[in-house]
Structures are given as C-alpha cells and as structure tokens.
Amino acid sequence: MNVDDMGADLERVLLTEEQLGARLDEIAAQIDADYAGREILVVGVLKGAVMVMADLARRISTPLAMDWMAVSSYGSGTKSSGVVRILKDLDADLTGKHVLIVEDIIDSGLTLSWLLANLRSRGPASVEIATMLRKPEAAKVEVDVRYVGFDIPNEFVVGYGLDYAEKYRNLPFVGTLAPHVYSS
Ligand code: 5GP
Ligand code: MG
Ligand code: MG
C-alpha cells in the first residue's frame, strides 16, 4: 500500500520506508557488535512489532531464535487502558537466554514496564529492548531502552505494523491519520 492508495485517510507521512530501513541497518549493526559471540532470543510483541521484527531480524547476523508474545494494553481506540493482559505467551523457556524484546512503539511505557518485569522473572541471562518508535511520554518511565529507531512527536501514528482499529498495519511507512478517520 502506498500514500496514494491511502487517499484521504492519511494526514502526513512521518517516516518513509527508506528512513525506517536505513535506521534498522544502523541498529542491526549495533546489535551485532553488542551481542558478538552470543545467541539472541528475539521476542516480538504482537501484532504491532511484526514489521520491525521481520525487517530487523533479517539485518542481524548474530545467531538468533524468534519468539512471539501477544499482550493487550490498548483497545481499538487511541488511549492506553493501563491494563496489560497476556493473549499469547512465549513458547521458549527464557532461562539463561539473552532476550531482546522488539517493540513497535513506546508511548506511556506501561506495556513495556510490565513486560520487562514479567520476562525478567523467568531467569534470562539478560533482557534488552529495541523499539522502532518512542514518544515523549516514554521518558517518564524508568526503563533503559537500549535501541531506539526514532523519537517522534506525541501524535497517534499508524503504519509499519501500527493500527487504528486493526487497519493500516500494512503501510510500509509511518504516518498520521486525517481527523475525519477518528470521528467517522
Ligand atoms: P504504551 O503502553 O507504551 O502506552 O503503549 C504500548 C502500545 O500501545 C503499543 O505497542 C501500541 O500497540 C499502542 N500505541 C501507542 N502509541 C500508539 C500510536 O501512536 N499509534 C498506534 N497505532 N498504536 C499506539
Ligand atoms: Mg507494541
Ligand atoms: Mg493497536
């Protein structure tokens, strides 16, 4: 799907496919340097992290296994509920593993704080976080996010895995929606 196909739904493009890819090249190189000689268990948080997981994992040379977790913190609207629920747990045992959580976006950081505590309680050797996007609110959360793609303004964004009412996840770029989409 491209900008033209989105027609009137899109307000503006915040990050192009090229920008996202170039940043992932840099992050993957950093990850390879940091994890040299080790193996990684990359944990993708469904559904939003599907795109970044696929694009980041393909750029990493370090041996890795992939696992997925689904948690719910947002409904179909645009406000955080503050409630985190496991919809699908990991298949892997985390004992002794170097876990790298891959996230689409950190907003309030509520989901991430909860996830970190949860995964750390399972006896991993290490847990780090990589997120494609980070909003200003996230600065208030006292968690160390090792890899950040882009710091973005406090706006609701869609595309590159991120949805509005389950739509727009397949956009190859990150953009904002026109106001009429929310109100209709
Ligand atoms: P947090 O718990 O950090 O507030 O938010 C975590 C989750 O909320 C993200 O994984 C994502 O699913 C959703 N979210 C937060 N901000 C946005 C946004 O701007 N757009 C979309 N589509 N989802 C968001
Ligand atoms: Mg997420
Ligand atoms: Mg969502």
From TrEMBL:
Gene Ontology biological process terms in this record: GMP salvage; guanine salvage; hypoxanthine metabolic process; IMP salvage; purine ribonucleoside salvage
Subcellular localization: Cytoplasm
Enzyme class: transferase
Keywords annotated in UniProt: Cytoplasm, Glycosyltransferase, Magnesium, Metal-binding, Nucleotide-binding, Purine salvage, Transferase
Primary localization: cytoplasm
Gene3D superfamilies found in the cross-reference section: 3.40.50.2020
A GO term for molecular function: guanine phosphoribosyltransferase activity
Top-rank taxon: Bacteria
Reaction it catalyzes: IMP + diphosphate = hypoxanthine + 5-phospho-alpha-D-ribose 1-diphosphate; GMP + diphosphate = guanine + 5-phospho-alpha-D-ribose 1-diphosphate
Pathway assignment: Purine metabolism; GMP biosynthesis via salvage pathway; GMP from guanine: step 1/1; Purine metabolism; IMP biosynthesis via salvage pathway; IMP from hypoxanthine: step 1/1
Residues covered by the Phosphoribosyltransferase domain: 18-164
Cofactors that this protein relies on: Mg(2+)
InterPro entries registered for this protein in UniProt: HGPRT, Hxn_phspho_trans, PRTase-like, PRTase_dom
Any one GO CC term of the record: cytosol
EC number: 2.4.2.8
Family per similarity comment: Belongs to the purine/pyrimidine phosphoribosyltransferase family.
Protein name: Hypoxanthine phosphoribosyltransferase
Organism, as annotated: Cellulomonas pakistanensis
Phylogenetic lineage: Bacteria, Bacillati, Actinomycetota, Actinomycetes, Micrococcales
